[in-house]
Amino acid sequence: xxxxxxxxxxxxxxxxxxxxxxxxxxxxxxxxxxxxxxxxxxxxxxxxxxxxxxxxxxxxxxxxxxxxxxxxxxxxxxxxxxxxxxxxxxxxxxxxxxxxxxxxxxxxxxxxx
Length: 113
Description:
Elements: E1 2-3, E2 22-26, E3 41-45, E4 55-60, E5 65-73, E6 80-84, E7 93-96, E8 101-110
Antiparallel strand pairs: 1-8, 2-3, 3-8, 4-5, 4-8, 5-6, 6-7
């Protein structure tokens, strides 16, 4: 079953005309628990790399792929984004948007029935 992240509702249908590039990744770590289970495969829209609106994104952090909530920080020069884990045991990170390597927006999670 493919579900929207953090909900029990079905994932939205991607716009295949504007972006045929969807991929499935499995990430390690529990910084996004309970929204995403460690190792759970997620469906990523690699054409959606702008963090507006805020959402769950896959990013490259020079050591590997990470999954975090990405929130634009309003009225900042240069433009900044906040990387926020869902797990309260992990801290937020603030960085310039220009240095954030956003791979794509997470649009669904795969769960075994």
